[in-house]
Amino acid sequence: MNDVPSGQSLLFLTDEQLRQGIEAMFFAYRGFTADPDRILEGKAYGRAHHRAIHFINRSPGTTVNNLLSILGVTKQSLNRVLRSLIEDGLVESRVGKIDKRERNLFLTEAGASLERELSDAQRDRMRAAFRAAGPSAVAGFRQVLEAMMDEDMRRHYEALRDRTT
Amino acid sequence: MNDVPSGQSLLFLTDEQLRQGIEAMFFAYRGFTADPDRILEGKAYGRAHHRAIHFINRSPGTTVNNLLSILGVTKQSLNRVLRSLIEDGLVESRVGKIDKRERNLFLTEAGASLERELSDAQRDRMRAAFRAAGPSAVAGFRQVLEAMMDEDMRRHYEALRDRTT
DNA sequence: AGAATACGTCAGCCTTGTTGACATTCCAAG
DNA sequence: CTTGGAATGTCAACAAGGCTGACGTATTCT
What we know:
Chains A, B: It comes from Marivivens niveibacter. The structure is a homodimer. The first copy, chain A, is mostly helical. Chain A has a single domain (15-133), classed as Winged helix-like DNA-binding domain superfamily/Winged helix DNA-binding domain (Arc Repressor Mutant, subunit A, Orthogonal Bundle). Chain A is 66% helix and 7% strand. Chain A has seven helices and three strands, in the order H-H-E-H-H-E-E-H-H-H. Chain A has a three-stranded antiparallel sheet. In chain A, strand 2 (91-95) and strand 3 form a beta hairpin. The mean pLDDT of chain A is 93. The interface between A and B is large, with 59 and 59 residues. The structure holds a DNA duplex.
């Protein structure tokens, strides 16, 4: 193991620093989900519905399979969520034009409205954090998070990020 | 609101940037929990057990109430987790010396061993991400996460961080 | 024609969260 | 010394949201 600090200090890689990073992730994620959770409680929906709505809004017309691989859950689990959203008229499922086995998912006006409410709340917190930390901290934040993702997730993340749409 | 971009660009606060931050959090958190989850599956334990073990290890002798407020769950929920860990001999619960109503929680040797296995896996990923991103990115990462926490969680985070122990 | 794909659904299970109710033990204030 | 309240444990019941396995249907590909 020749990881000798070559002049450049590697103090940021001590177990102590890593542990702090881990705990920061844990506590911050709680804040990250707190506001949407608050809005959803009492609305008969949960975090799973939020995630579905978020990614359908982000990629209108996406297929069930694509959503499945982004969310990383089973189709049975997603289906339960999707069914209630469709029944309640927040999501519309259209038979695919080219491949009729597929279903293309869209938010209805009501769905888009809930999405806005949720993402406004979540963005407000993110905005406050970004503003408090400043642009270069934000760049670092993103770099570390990207490096922490699994390969599959990074592909999805980049595909969404690099969109011209 | 006099938050006019004073020469300094505020492009990092656009809705698009914020959305990317949100999605980065979502995808990265999956990676963050993936390795411990893999280790725990088949061991009859889950993420809740991991969290309890982590914070007991971090603060040996902590009380149930303190753990409750760190984890942000109900005592019934924590109790279920704690009971199985105590039964399996991973955690020891000692009656408080000063206040005998309290229970002081400690990891046994077996508990400490599982803790090490889990945190090694989680630290490996964090280390790889930190190393790939570099020290200044790591500083930014931490700054943003801290700013994202709820006030209560930030207090817990800082109390753990600023420990001399 | 037959295999593979995309989707939906039924049934049942697990973990982890919740509320509500209640018992015990013990500290501290009156 | 008694009593109120705090800290803890525990029972029961329930819900959300994961999971597996099996099966059915429509569609498309080979």
